[in-house]
# Entry
Amino acid sequence: MTDLSIRPATADDLPAIVAMLADDPLGATRESPNDLTPYRTALARIVADPHQHLVVAVRAGRTIGTLQLTLIPGLSRKGSTRTIIEGVRIHSDERGTGLGTDLLQWAIDTSRDLGADLVQLTSDATRTDAHRFYERLGFVASHLGFKLAL
Amino acid sequence: MTDLSIRPATADDLPAIVAMLADDPLGATRESPNDLTPYRTALARIVADPHQHLVVAVRAGRTIGTLQLTLIPGLSRKGSTRTIIEGVRIHSDERGTGLGTDLLQWAIDTSRDLGADLVQLTSDATRTDAHRFYERLGFVASHLGFKLAL
# Structure
């Protein structure tokens, strides 16, 4: 098996990333894989912000995973910095291969390198398999996650 | 009653903010109100990041509330930008006065002004009063919030 590489996402990765976002029970109704224009605009915003780390996992030239890590300085917990993980997706052919663990471990290690004291994420209440996965990595489901669409 | 003002936090607000962070069942064990040094360092990090909006609510010269709003560009949901609200605190003398609603409404309005499509926050599972408060404002508790201390 070829080595896995985890590197910053570029515009060339957008078709593969958006296909993964759309290939999902929740994402299927929320994404537009046939029109990448809004994603190109969004990628430019992400790349312009040094506290955003949008990465892809690549093996043998195939983009097979993605996540976004955001660094947030804060006052609470004695001025702790935290990271937030969003948009975790693993290609459907690659689930169960340990790729998710590798990608999350990258996010945890990078959070530590960036000086964070805490890593957090939210997961839709319906994604029970994902919850078990995060708990195996040491995450604790101590919070409720609230969303308000504008 | 004097008008409420919501404005960016400065170093002069730190004693009042940290006192509010510490005057809380969870914060009591996590904060150091007698040593503001780590908070001063953290405030410098927050102020240096244009996507962080740490504000205080002030009435009649008293700092009576605080929250931090973070703007996060992303790819999912057709390149949506979201905001995250952290560190919401209302002075114990001011609870039940509608100040929390005013402060959250400021965060929602500012999120819209900043071009966000979604506002999200997490709340410790034990804070059941806060959950009802967020639901009254239109937030939906659709997610679980996971944390990993580093």
